[in-house]
Design a protein that fits this description.
356 residues, alpha/beta, Neutral Protease, domain 2, five-stranded mixed beta sheet, elongated, binds zinc ion
Amino acid sequence: MSVVSKIAQLVWFNSPTVGAYQNQLLSELAALLARDLPLGARVAAMLFMAESLENHDIGLFRTLNELWGEDLEALTSQVWFEDGIDDDEAIVATILPSQVVRSPENFRRLLNANFIEKGSTVLPLAGEVSFAIVRLSAIENEDVMPHLIAAAGKVEEFMGLPQPINEVIVLIGSPGGERELSGVNLGGTFIVVRPEDYEYCVEEKTVFAHELVHFYPANRGRSTPTWFREGGADQVAFLVHLEMYNLVFSYTGDPCPAVSLQQLLDDEAAVGYLQHQSGPLFACNYVIGQTLLGAVADAMGAAAFKTAWRELQMAAAAGLGVTDPVIRDTFRRHTPSSKITLFDSAYAIWHKGEFN
Ligand SMILES: [Zn+2]
């Protein structure tokens, strides 16, 4: 049977609800067939393709297109690959390319043994959303999945926008990279969280909410200033934990003495993002960014802060430039006139930029 007729027989192929995925899948499949016809044909006939079409199914094809040489061989020679991929295995395969350079150890361990926990919920704005936690160790923290699902609901509510992705995959492993972060959002659908943070009491760990914030337009990629993306992710995560557990988080003890946001912006502009990211000032984006936003929220009031925050998300979603001056203008415009002095002094203390 030809590959084309195999595809045409799949149940989901004629279902209108999978239209968007179908196009992505067919283009990934076409790329794979062009590169390696027998492999493409073999995968198209596997079980995971037969029933429903999900984001991670496309992820598997993307993985096969992105891995090369011994990394590809390492995957396709696994017994679990050879005997046909199921949905859990497709989720694991989806993560693999992101780990090749970042964490070769995660890559090898993912191929061998892993544990998957799945969950799902209906978010008021995004609708049905699924979650998968992929672990490399047998140690399980049963509180994480409910926390993740509840936090996703709180984050979506705060944003006023539907959660932009409908499948969240959390890998519990070393985040890798140059700096040892608690977590990292690798774009697409992945979040990586350190085992130490996963195994700890979730009420104390804002990292899950923080990484969920990074799916939203103004906190994603490089669309906004670094201090806003990271400090904003902390600000929302802290508010989520306050609401969910009545726990107050803040950066106390000033671990970034005398560092202003303007200094961080200047440093990044001078040395470039990558060097700034591996330099000593980078962590201050979180600390001073959240401290300013916390002070701004206190000055303008929680409701006005949320309104301005949503306006910024909306602007980023529309592709408008959410620059450093736009961020200040937006918050300032929503600040009651009796609070403007307070607002300006917060900016003068923590930002120190020239705005007029
Ligand atoms: Zn972050």
